[in-house]
Amino acid sequence: MPFVSCPMPGGAVPVPGRAGEAERGAEKEMKNSLKYAQCYDYLVNYIKKNNYRKDDRLPTGKEIAETLGVSRITVQRALTELQEAGIIYRVQGSGTFLAKEIGQEESGGVKIIPMVVSHDGVSTRSFEMIQGAEAYFSEQNCYLTVHNSYGSTEQEVEIVERLLADSFRSLLVFPVSSMKNRSYYYRLIRDGVNIVFLDHAPNDINCNLVESDNVSGGYQATEHLIGQGHRRIGVVCPDDMRDYSSFSERYAGYRFALKQHGIEKKEEYVAVCRDSGEIPGAVEKLLGEKERPTAVFVFNDLAAVEVANEVRRQGYRVPEDVAVIGFDNLEELCLGQPVPLSSVDQDFYRIGYTAAKLLHEIMRENDGILRDCKVPVKLVARASTGGGQDAPAELGEAGEKSAAERLEEPEAASRPEPEAD
C-alpha cells in the first residue's frame, strides 16, 4: 500500500469563516485518501487471496465500488496506482487484467524476499552468499529472510511450500542437490514462480542461476599443476557428480585442460568417494598405481584437506611427492594446514549479491528470459602445489619407489627431471 501522508493543521485555533472551510476541506481530503488506500489494499489482498494469475480478468470498477461502498472515482484512483506499479493493465472495452502475479513482497510498500539455503555447518559459503544478497536488498530498501533446510531435500520443499502458502512468488534458493526436487522446481517455474538458484541448479531444467565459473576453475587448477611440471594428474570427486552440477563442471574443466596440453585422461586417475570416510581408500588407490599421480585435484577444500592428510599418513610428502589443490578457497581452512592448501577462489559474496540483483530485476521486468550468470574465479597458489615455484625435480622416477625408501634416501646433489608420459 502506498504511504499516505495526512498532515494535521498547525497549532493555531481555527476561527469561523474561511479557515473553518479549509479545515473541513482538509478533513474531507483525508477521508478520501483513507478510502482510496483501503481500496488499494483490498484489491492487492483480493488478488492474492483468489490466486489470480497473469492475464486473469479482475472485477469491474462498478463491482468493486459496490462491494466496498465507495465511489467509482475512488476505485479508479486505486486502479490507476496499480496500473502505474505494473500490477494491472487495462484493455478498452474488455476490462482490467493482472499484469503480473503478486505476493506478500509487493504489499505494504516494503518488499520481503525469502532465501532458502542449505547450510552444511562447516564452511562459510552460505553466510557469505547471504551477506551479499542482504547488501543488495538493503540498497533497494528490501528485507531478506533466511530459511535453512539443513541439507534435507524434504525440508527444503516444506520451506518453499510454506512460503508459497504465504503468497511469496519470488525466491532465492541455494538447493541441497541438483538431482533431487527437479520435477518440483520445474513445476514451480512453469507456474510462474520467480526463482533464482545460487551455486548450482536442478539438472535438466531451464532456470535462472548465478554460479561460479566452475569450468574455468577446473581448467585453472589443472593448468596450474601442468605448469608445475605435472603430467600424471589425478582427481578425487563425488561418486555421482550429477548430484551437484558445479562438480560436473569442474570435472569438465579438468578434462579440457588435459586435452589442451596433449595429456591423456586416464580413468585409473579418477577416484570417487561417496563421503569423507572413503577418502583414505581413494588416496590408497591412486598412490597404488604403478605410475601413480604426482598431483591431485580435489573438488572442494574440505575433501582436499583430508586427501593431503591421508597422503602424509601413507608416507608421502606434500608437495614434493604429491601436490594437492582444492576448490573454494576457504581461507582459514587452507592457511591452517601444515602445508597451506592451494585452491580456486570463489566469490560467494558476489554470487549472493548478483543473485539478489537478478531476482529484483525479474520482479520488476518479468520478461520471461532465463539467465545463467557466471561469476569469475581465480587461482590461489600456496605451498601444497609448490607455492608457484617449479615442480620438485624428484616427481618423476621417484614415484616408482616406496615411500619408506624415499624417506631414508639421502638428499642428492641433483634430481632427475619429471618424466614425460
Question: How would you describe the overall organization of this protein?
Answer:
The protein is an alpha/beta fold and 421 residues long. It has helices spanning 18-49, 61-68, 72-84, 125-139, 153-165, 182-190, 214-227, 245-260, 279-287, 301-313, 331-335, 348-365, 403-408, and strands at 88-91, 95-98, 111-117, 142-148, 170-173, 194-198, 208-212, 233-238, 270-273, 295-298, 323-325, 343-345, 372-375, 378-380. The protein has 13 helices and 14 strands. The strands form four sheets. The chain has a six-stranded parallel beta sheet with strand order 4-3-5-6-7-13, sandwiched between helices. A hairpin with a 3-residue loop joins strand 1 and strand 2 (95-98). Helix 2 crosses helix 3, helix 4 crosses helix 12 and helix 9 (279-287) crosses helix 10 (301-313). The longest helix is centred in the first third of the chain and has 32 residues, at 18-49.
Give the topology, please.
Blueprint: H1 18-49, H2 61-68, H3 72-84, E1 88-91, E2 95-98, E3 111-117, H4 125-139, E4 142-148, H5 153-165, E5 170-173, H6 182-190, E6 194-198, E7 208-212, H7 214-227, E8 233-238, H8 245-260, E9 270-273, H9 279-287, E10 295-298, H10 301-313, E11 323-325, H11 331-335, E12 343-345, H12 348-365, E13 372-375, E14 378-380, H13 403-408
Parallel strand pairs: 3-4, 3-5, 5-6, 6-7, 7-13, 8-9, 8-10, 10-11
Antiparallel strand pairs: 1-2, 12-14
